[in-house]
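User: I'm new to structure prediction. If I give you an amino acid sequence, what do you actually give back? Let's try with this one:
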Amino acid sequence: MFTGIITGVGRISAAQALGETTTHGKRLTIEAPVGYLDDVGLGDSIALNGACMTVTTFNVATQQFTIDISAESLDKTAGLDALGPINLEKALRAHDRLGGHLVSGHVDGMGLVSHFAQVGESWELRIVAPKSLGKYLAYKGSITVNGVSLTVNRIADIAEGCEVSINLIPHTVDNTALHTLVAGKKVNLEIDLIARYVERMMTAPAAT
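Assistant: Good question. You get back a string of structure tokens that encode the predicted 3D arrangement of the chain. For your 208 residues, that looks like this:
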């Protein structure tokens, strides 16, 4: 489990194919901020742009770690198939503060950035989510974008899906990889965990 509060911005520095066909995944090497791996062990979970991955090797001296990502995960996520900056979050510990909202690290779908521009001291980010996720999005509800816990300011159901508008304060832009977003770029989305259970309770057959 995670909270959607980014604990570091790393960088995918290498991507090695694990085979010669499209059914093979990749081994990613990630450069982490200084000191980030000091309390990390083999098998620990770290979310990369909101996708929960397992640490397969790590080197405290170089502050690098590797993860293996399957072809299926590469197909269902954005930003994990190319070199560049990436949001990092270590798994939630039982005594940690829940600064964002409960996040599972399982990407529900990919959205498309439709607008990203500065407004006053903040930034407005608009994303078109798939129609299948639209029913889970609500005004002042929570959504995870590339692993970042954010609050929905507006929603609009359009032909292409559900467009959500989000306000980013300067701190969020400066301390995550969201500053690299541009219109037309895909992002990883995870809906509010509670919405999943509400839907199941509302649609499950009644007990007999």
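You can read the tokens as a compact description of the fold. Here is one thing that stands out. Helices lie at 71-75, 131-134, 170-175, 193-203.
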